[in-house]
Amino acid sequence: MKIITIGKNGVQEAVNPVVSSAGAADKGKPVGLDETGKLDPTVMPSGLGATTYVAPAYEALSAGDFVNIFDDAGTTKIRLADAQSVTRIAHGFVKNSVAAGGNASVYLEGENDKLSGLTVGSEYFLDFNEKGKAVTNPNVSPGLVVQNLGFALSTTTILFKREKGIVIN
């Protein structure tokens, strides 16, 4: 859906509203609802709504993935969290799929409701086999990181609260 606005020369023009904000670059643009019929937290003022962080995706991310925020040669980027590396613990999760290089909105806490097949009430940990995923039984082999991601509120939602993780020796 396009919105009619008054352009720079005073002429009406049809524009697509932004659904997710990249910050100052989106200043003055009209805002639209996302695919769930809600406002994305990135368009909300600071202190209102979910705590999020926006940065370029280092690799392709799928909705529901648990992710790591890192410095790539001076540029902050988002990549899949990985229990096989102490430097790749989960800092948050994404609710939308993002191609490598696209801006990813990372939710730093809250309900990750883009999952499936969860057992209500079970604790979930960062997966050691598949980056960015959650499992109920963490691998406790030496050298791996055991990071509790939270517990399942429903078959599709984990209540995420970041923990540092424990390195198994």
Structural notes for this entry:
The protein is mainly beta and 169 residues long. Helices cover 0% and strands 34% of the residues. The protein contains no helices and 14 strands. The protein has strands at 3-6, 12-15, 52-56, 66-72, 75-80, 92-94, 103-107, 109-112, 123-126, 134-135, 145-146, 148-152, 158-161, 166-167. Strands 3-7-6-4-5 form a 5-stranded antiparallel sheet, with no helix packed on it. Strands 8-13-12-9-10 form a 5-stranded antiparallel sheet, with no helix packed on it. A hairpin with an 8-residue loop joins strand 6 (92-94) and strand 7. The chain is elongated, with a radius of gyration of 18 Å. The N and C termini lie far apart (55 Å). The model has no long low-confidence stretch (mean pLDDT 92).
